[in-house]
Amino acid sequence: MASFEDRRYKQQQQQQQQQQHADPQAAAVQNLLAKAHSPESAKRIYATKIQHRTLHLRPSSPPPAVINAREARRKAREGARKRGKPGPLSNRERRKLGLDDVPRRGHRYEIYEPLHQLWLGYMRETLGGDLHSGGPVAAAKLASADFHGALAEVVRSRCPSRVGIKGIVVRDRKFVMEIVPRRGGLKVVPKEGTTFRFQVTPEQTTERGEPFVFEVLGDQLMVRSADRANKKYKTHFLPDL
Asked: Residue 181: which H helix or E strand, with range?
């Protein structure tokens, strides 16, 4: 007559055989556990850590209370920033809004004649005694000068149709000059490959003489007018001349 332990062992063997036929992978795992642990330990480990293991779908997600608090703080910061003092517009925003563009009704020569007179006074004061003598000192001053309001004429250009354009400079950008000619309109002249001619007339009440005429290579002016005043120029050979 079989003992109780023998019957229990046979039942376990039958259960294992049924599980092996039902799930070969589970049987392989149980065989591996049986090699390293006792039958009771192998069964317990398989049941707790493999068969009935808890599956966490979102283990790293914070609780809803934390998410709501974070969203509330973000909205509070945005509201405080909107209610605060607005900051200055960036260059991209100014270009998008067209704040720096010259309006069409302003494309008239007579509007900028007072600006040209201011530029003449500025150049007379900048050049001083070098107004007629010229030389390296005058060249250094002209290289860092501001040409807003100057009477410019295109004397040489890679594009022949631009030669002869003459008018007052209303905008001195990094790569182009916007010129309003005497007949009106707006001409956008690229600086690259273009030579501009300027002239500074002396004050008739105090001085006599011919106007001071000079030419500037546009390739050497491809700097923002605000940065040109602090730029240090060096004398070097120009292959385009």
From this structure: strand 176-181
